[in-house]
TrEMBL record:
InterPro entries: AtBBR-like, Znf_RING, Znf_RING/FYVE/PHD
Organism, as annotated: Macleaya cordata (Five-seeded plume-poppy)
UniProt name for this protein: Zinc finger protein
Pfam families assigned to the protein according to its UniProt record, in alphabetical order: zf-RING_2 (PF13639)
Residue ranges occupied by any RING-type domain in the UniProt entry: 57-94
Length: 95
């Protein structure tokens, strides 16, 4: 019997059951950060500042402005986000 290598497999030609079996053999890849790693990220309290140019700070994920005193999650790059926005993103996306 001919052994099929992974390079020869065409997932578009496999049945649902065959895809499940393949997933068990190949395993899964964790794409995002663990919940523990995300929980360990530092939090800051946002402090509104009077900018002369009239600009306001906002979360670049949801595009909503930060409220004075709101708790934000800060990454090592020093960018801050709403916790619910960045936590979800970090769980889903490969970082």
């Amino acid at each position: 019997m001919h052994q099929v290598s992974y390079e020869e497999l065409d997932p578009d030609e496999l049945s649902y059951e065959e895809l499940l079996a393949l997933g068990e053999v190949v395993g899964t890849e964790s794409r995002g950060l663990s919940s523990d790693t995300i929980a360990a990220l530092p939090s800051i309290s946002y402090k509104a500042q009077d900018d002369q140019d009239g600009s306001t700070d906002q979360c670049v994920i949801c595009r909503l402005e930060y409220d004075d005193g709101e708790t934000l999650t800060m990454l090592s790059c020093k960018h801050s986000y709403h916790p619910e926005c960045i936590n979800n993103w970090l769980q889903i996306n490969k970082v």
